[in-house]
From TrEMBL:
Source organism per UniProt: Candidatus Berkelbacteria bacterium CG10_big_fil_rev_8_21_14_0_10_43_14
Record-linked InterPro entries: Glyco_trans_1, Glyco_trans_4-like_N
Keyword Lipoprotein: no
Family annotation (CDD domains): GT4_MtfB-like (cd03809)
Name of this protein: Glycosyltransferase family 1 protein
MF term (GO), any: glycosyltransferase activity
DNA-binding keyword on record: no
Organism superkingdom: Bacteria
């Protein structure tokens, strides 16, 4: 069986889907049956987007076919029937298409296909990215889920949302939970008085509630604890940046921007407390990363986060209640025993997930999809 994987997002991005593709490719290569083959297709909107070092990495696992499609034409091209003649040429000799993003699933391709869907946040919160853009992204998600032969959902929450918002048959959807990159491991590093949070600077990550809660801490804790915010620039982040620069705890708050996984793992390992309270998540990988590195975790009791954290996290029930969150900060910052208990539970919980397990479940679905079309 020759599996074609669209690796475009891996090459042109650094976080999110790019990290998923990096791990699923590396582990699929180890779990596929003898005689199976991986190959990759990469499409660019412009020549300068090409990153040869990432293409070279993909070549360790299979052949790579690169195509340039002007940005204004890609989505139009992807949805036209006559484009099928190009896909037939590009996918020549392939048996099944694995699309790790709904952006990379053409409307017309003769190959049986498996698509990965991460969340339906644009359907749930259309105003956060603008209603016009959200409507388009939701439409693309719905189209991809409908035309694929099988769907991987990264959590039960995402599966439920696909049924609710896209009317997808539940039997068509397989839940394949995420895992941590091997860069994230537990070390015996001494923990410091740092409150760490990770996430792109955008409204859904609910950073404003975290910052408001932190500035409500008593003076003795603000003098001894620091708030570290890791995450690249997102959208609608003006209020977030403003409150970071102008609040009672500004001197104890540091915005670090995007951090590579190897350095991020060190921050998790040294964090005295990790907080992640988004409005909604398709999975919530930072929670799993923090637990894997032994950091005690406070998170929100919404969407897929209880799936990830189980009984190993402290949960904020009202995600907008900064006063309650401040109280939780004080409880854990002043009680090392409580932090150690969460840390131990988190490490145990994290051991139940692995990319090997995820890759095997994904490969099983790809193989099943192929057999149904032979």
């Amino acid at each position: 069986m020759k599996i074609c994987i669209d690796a475009t997002r891996f090459v042109i991005e650094n976080a999110g889907i790019a990290r998923y593709i990096k791990n699923i490719v590396a582990f699929l290569a180890h779990v596929t049956a003898p005689g199976d083959e991986l190959c990759f297709i990469v499409t660019f909107m412009r020549h300068y987007a090409r990153k040869d070092e990432k293409i070279a990495w993909l070549k360790k696992y299979g052949s790579v076919h690169v195509h340039i499609i002007p940005g204004k034409w890609k989505e139009y091209f992807w949805e036209k029937k006559w484009a099928g003649i190009y896909f037939k040429r590009w996918f020549s000799g392939c048996d099944v298409l694995f699309a790790p993003s709904y952006f990379e699933l053409p409307v017309f391709t003769a190959l049986p296909s498996v698509v990965v869907i991460y969340d339906l946040t644009t359907a749930r919160f259309p105003k956060q990215r603008g209603e016009q853009l959200s409507a388009r992204l939701t439409r693309l998600t719905r189209q991809a889920a409908n035309r694929a032969d099988a769907v991987c959902a990264i959590s039960k929450q995402t599966k439920d949302d696909l049924v609710t918002y896209c009317s997808i048959d539940p039997a068509k959807i397989t839940v394949t939970l995420l895992a941590c990159d091997p860069a994230f491991t537990h070390t015996q590093t001494k923990r410091t008085n740092t409150l760490l949070t990770v996430g792109t600077l955008e409204p859904r990550k609910n950073l404003i509630t975290i910052i408001k809660a932190f500035q409500k801490l008593p003076d003795n804790l603000l003098k001894t604890w620091r708030l570290l915010i890791v995450g690249g620039k997102g959208w609608n982040d003006e209020e977030i940046l403003s409150i970071i620069s102008n609040n009672r705890a500004t001197q104890s708050t540091q915005l670090l921007g995007f951090i590579p996984d190897t350095h991020l793992a060190q921050l998790y390992a040294r964090a005295g407390l990790f907080v992640y309270i988004p409005l909604f998540e398709g999975f919530g990988l930072p929670v799993l990363e923090a637990m894997t590195c032994g950091a005690p975790v406070i998170t929100s009791n919404v969407s897929s986060l209880p799936e990830v954290g189980g009984d190993a996290c402290a949960y904020l029930k009202d995600i907008y209640d900064d006063t309650k969150l401040a109280t939780m900060f004080i409880q854990y910052m002043t009680d090392k025993t409580k932090r150690d208990t969460l840390s131990k539970k988190g490490l145990q919980r994290a051991r139940t997930s692995s990319w090997d397990k995820t890759a095997r479940a994904t490969y099983s679905l790809i193989r099943k999809t192929h057999k149904e079309h032979v």
